[in-house]
Design goal:
By secondary structure, the chain is α/β, with parallel strands linked by helices. Helices cover 24% and strands 13% of the residues. Strands 3-2-4-1-5 form a five-stranded mixed beta sheet, covered by helices on one side. It is globular and about 40 Å long.
Length: 170
């Protein structure tokens, strides 16, 4: 499946689960099913058929692994009003993320911006919401998702934010 839709926005989310606790795409799929999200059956049959409701395109685990949700060509269900032109990334946790998660986020955002020619800038109303933003940065969203300021992360060269770093026990 090729991406045939125009993408100009990357939206970063969090799973709103305890920091560092493993949460799978199947867990998220279950929660999204409870909220009434549904994938197009033909799209689900072609890509991740066990995930019938997940709204995100990628989930980033505490160990840095990335799991796919919806295919990039499939419209997400993660950011009302901009789903048709955006891709959704979800960090497992709420407001503190591991070094491997921060690294996976940096790599994924850079890759997606390059692949889809999305400007590597904070998406705001002034930019027509073109670029990268947190879910909470979108108009009409009353959530602290993700639990950090994406503008600060972008301005800091996409390095882990000190107050939002989770160090796992060794």
């Amino acid at each position: 499946m090729n991406t045939t839709r125009t993408i100009d926005l990357i939206v970063i989310h969090c799973s709103a689960t305890p920091n560092g606790r493993w949460t799978s795409t199947l867990d998220i799929d279950h929660w999204h099913a409870e909220r009434g999200f549904r994938r197009d059956p033909s799209a689900a049959a072609r890509f991740n058929p066990d995930l019938r409701s997940i709204g995100y395109h990628w989930v980033l685990y505490p160990n840095g692994a990335r799991a796919t949700g919806r295919h990039p060509s499939e419209v997400g269900a993660h950011a009302r009003g901009v789903n048709s032109r955006s891709l959704g990334l979800c960090l497992v946790g709420t407001d503190r993320f591991t070094y491997p998660q921060w690294g996976a986020l940096l790599d994924q955002v850079r890759h997606l911006c390059a692949t889809h020619r999305v400007p590597l800038q904070l998406a705001t109303a002034a930019t027509g919401y073109r670029g990268v933003c947190g879910h909470r940065d979108l108009a009409g969203v009353n959530k602290a998702c993700p639990g950090f300021d994406v503008g600060d992360w972008l301005a800091g060269d996409m390095l882990p934010l000190r107050n939002h770093l989770l160090e796992l026990p060794k």
